[in-house]
Amino acid sequence: MTSPLLDVSELRTSFRTVGGSARAVDGISFTIAPEETVGLVGESGCGKSVTALSILRLIRPPGAIEPGSRITFESRDLLALPEAEMRAVRGARIAMVFQEPMTSLNPVLTVGAQVAEVVRVHAGASKAEAWRRAVETLAAVGFPDPAARALDHPHQLSGGLRQRVMIAMALVMRPALLIADEPTTALDVTTQAQILERLAALQAAMAMSVLLITHDLGIVAERAQRVIVMYAGQIVEEAPVRELFAAPHHPYTKALVAAVPRLGVRRERLETIPGQVPSADAWPTGCRFRERCPRAFDRCAVEPPLYRIGSGHRSRCHLDAPGGAA
Amino acid sequence: MRSWIRACERGDVMLFGWFVCLAAGALAVWAVHRGARGGSAGPWRRGLAHLASDRPAMAALFILAMLAALAILAPVVAPYLPNAQPDVVSGNNQPPSLDHLFGTDFASRDVFSRVLFGGRISLAVAALAVLLSTCLGTAYGAVAGFHGGRLDGVMMRVLDAALSIPRILLVMAVVAVARSITVPTLVLLLGVTGWFGTSRMVRAQVLSLREQDLTTAARALGARDREILWRHLLPNVASTVIVAATLSLGNVIILEAALSYLGIGIRPPTPSWGNIIQDGSSQLASAWWMALFPGLAIVITVLAINTLGDALRDALDPRTVDGT
Fold first, then answer.
1. What is the ipTM of this complex?
2. What is the per-residue pLDDT across B268-318, written as a single tens digit (0 to 9) for each?
3. What are the extents of the domains in chain A?
4. Which residues of B touch A168 (CB under 8 A)?
5. What is the dihedral angle through the alpha carbons of A262, A264, A268, A271, rounded to the nearest 10 degrees?
6. Confidence of residue B163 (pLDDT cuts 50, 70, 90)
7. Which residue of A has its CA nearest to B316?
8. Distance from C-alpha of A79 to C-alpha of A73, rounded to nearest angstrom
9. What domain range includes position B89?
10. Does domain A6-84+214-320 have CATH number 3.40.50.720?
11. Treating both helix axes as pointing N-terminal to C-terminal, what angle do B55-72 and B111-147 enclose, rounded to 10 degrees?
12. Which residue of B has its CA nearest to A159?
């Protein structure tokens, strides 16, 4: 087995709050292989975005990554890198695309200049060279008439084009890993499909890995090879994509999959999961899904570990304990 | 020819002041020209196009350009040198006439010429002082806002302390300590006491920009703090700074006039709008023209500057420009 590109182990990220501390990410471990696409799904507030920002070491005070966490990327310990070396990783080896392109782009600079700046920061290229590569990358992400429209400002572009600019900024240095945090959530469905398709093509061409963060299981089913389901700061289930949809194990995953509306299936109401994600400053004891779980039983008062079910399939539920719990 | 040389004797600082005025004027004309052309417009050019369609603002710009031109060309336009006494014997306190458009003062000097030459000094001093205070204020505010935390707290409390002393008292205190005050010192003084407000505005904006996605996005792409501040945050603050600088230009002109009027600014016989008014104030009843015309010059200039500043604010405000 080849060594993974990214190896996250026991990552804990907490935020200091007025009453104490909130551990938004609580001991998650996963790997991403070269050229692999991993989907990271979960409801709002489950720690997906904090995980992404932690990998890039972009957690700002009052937040901090706790000691004992380990993030290895391209055989280097990211958490031990000096800030200057970390900067060389950001944008060049690991790049990130954010959910809301309007607020992530600079309103007073042309989009071409913003893409070119990434090249200048990392490659120290001349202005002309950086601009040439910016236009080239804009063309690659499907930006129409890039030579002329690179001179546009963000507010002159549609949401889809803005997100293409964000992707161009992320890909211009040909990173080994792209973290896409809800890249298409702000877009309509047709634009969503176009952009994801283009991204998949570029991923193959650049031999790049993608960590696709989303709450849209449809996108995950289509684009990811492996899925990680997060709940309340922890991984609750991890499985190859087919297996996850065909045979979800954790009750939370089951509920998520059941909540996806399907064509041709008549239902009176859409399935929902009762209750809300608990808040990070007061995770419940025992199994964190216990209070919302239809199958909770007395053992759930003890926090379950991640049980290994099959090859690459793990689940954090006592029902999946070896030998059977129920 | 001699008159030219003598008029330029006021030194390098003045020359630099004029350079600033000219550069600002040229920039304004160029910007408005480009803005008016429209086309593929960013927030900047959209703002300027908006400005170009604002009639009062354009009138104000025109008036300012005229005043600046008159002041710059004073050695050519003015019929007399500012301290010349063409008719010492019987030429004092003459009312306005064709020979002396604004009349003559108690020393039989031509008030029109003195107002033109005075404008040269008043405008140059104001422009330089504002340039200085804007740079100081932007730098201080940007550092405080971007760094945040404890440093920001300390820097802002220092600012609060400075703001609690009226500016004119601050300036007067310094003048009281220094024996005499030269033009460069006056520029320095007005500049160093004028940046507090700008600083606060810049700090507030940088503070909010720093928390926005665009900062995180820039950081995620490997930009260092310095680059984020220069390339991403300051351009977003530029419109605020320009508006603040324009409005403070009017304030500084008034402040300089006030100081000169009180006799602690520009020293006579060098004319400035403030000290010409001072010269005329004792004879307001008998020779009104001595104080009226420099006063009018101040009123018109400041009014034009404030009109322009307000229009700039409307035109460049990101909230009105960047709607979509």
1. 0.82
2. 888 889 888 988 888 888 888 888 999 999 999 999 999 988 888 887 765
3. 6-84+214-320
4. none
5. -10
6. confident
7. A108
8. 10
9. 2-321
10. no
11. 120
12. B324
